[in-house]
Amino acid sequence: MDDKILNIFRTSNGEFISGEEISEKLKVSRAAVWKHIEQLRKEGYEITGEPHVGYRLTGTPDKLTAEEVSYRLGTKIIGKQIYSYETTGSTNDLAQKLAESGSPEGTAVFSEGQSKGRGRLGREWSSPKGKGIYLSLILRPKIAPTHAPKITLMSAIAVATAIRKITDLPALIKWPNDILVNGHKVCGILTEMSAEVNTVKYVVIGIGINVNTDKEHLPKGAASLKSELGGVVSRVELTQELLREIEHQYHLFKEKGFEDIVTEWRNLSYMLGERVKVICQDKKIEGYAVDIDKDGALVVRLDSGFPEHVTAGDVIMVR
Ligand code: BT5
Fold first, then answer.
1. For the chain, what is the radius of gyration of the CA atoms?
2. Phi-psi region of 255 (alpha: psi -120 to 50; beta: other; left: phi over 0)
């Protein structure tokens, strides 16, 4: 019912609309209309009431609810189904459960805060409430499990592009899963999957972005879009742009393969040409990050000249 009232307000383009008209349109009592308006106000909607004139929507909350994110989103697959929570352990866990029970490709899970937000290898992801974007997205690409890292790179391009479009900040990608602004980490991506021997059953892309987070609530060295911009950023607008970008990149990936994505990735890379140390599972290497290959692995030219292809690991810049 609340979403129906919201719809009436939104289609009245900021004009006043009387309680009577709303009650007639929705076939409910005036008292019920009033109750729902109170409920919407509690959720953060600003609704101005004028005696004998009616009500008008004057402000919407910057919260990642299904209503706000899907309003004028315009995507075909990504975010067609949205779940949103005030708080949860990890949105990746919720998305995995949904994927197991058959939720379609494009299903998105948001939470205002996470108590067990995680990064790779069981690391922690700081997820203060109401300030960031904590999103997990279900995809069902028809690819072999070994190609799953490509999904992380594709998502990183989408995040960097969306940040650039909404804030003009110079967002860059640090292989494999970080987005940096002015050298500080503002976003991390955690791709998890369920697979059979030769095919992926589903992939969950977990994206955490520090949007309006104050630096004191983040690990040392991390930043938020607000801290770099010096002003608040609309989480709803950024989320919508991000979902549109992921849809665009995913479409390219399915239609044209990985080639275009590699080109785009190179343009947004933080570290090509730089000297790096890479810590992989069983070893440390040092050299120049010269490229990513057709599978999304980082190519590091060792001092011997040998090009080492790294498929997973952590990169430290040597400056
Ligand atoms: C990542 O791991 O960067 C992936 C983070 C993915 C988080 C999203 S939020 C939605 C979804 N649900 C989840 O539970 N997770 C995903 P990694 O590359 O391993 O980096 C983790 C490291 O980044 C930590 O060890 C900290 O040093 C640092 N870190 C933790 N919280 C941070 C934050 N909010 N901003 C920047 N850096 C952070």
1. 22
2. alpha
Distance 118 CA to ligand 1 centre (A): 6
| 54-91: pLDDT as tens digits | 999 999 999 999 999 999 999 999 999 999 999 999 99
DSSP state of 90: -
Which of 34, 59, 84 is where one domain is finished?
A: 59
Burial status of residue 147 (CB atoms within 10 A of its CB: 0-12, 13-18, 19 or more): middle
Per residue in 211-268, pLDDT tens? Answer: 999 999 999 999 999 999 999 999 999 999 999 999 999 999 999 999 889 999 999 9
Question: How many domains does the structure of the chain reveal?
Answer: 3
Q: State the residue range of the domain holding 307.
A: 275-317
Ligand 1 pocket, residue 152 CB under 6 Å: no
Whole-structure pTM value: 0.96
Atom of ligand 1 nearest to the CA of 224: 35
Whether the CB-CB separation of 260 and 295 falls below 8 Å is answered with: no
Where do runs of H (alpha helix) occur along 189-268?
225-229, 235-256, 259-267
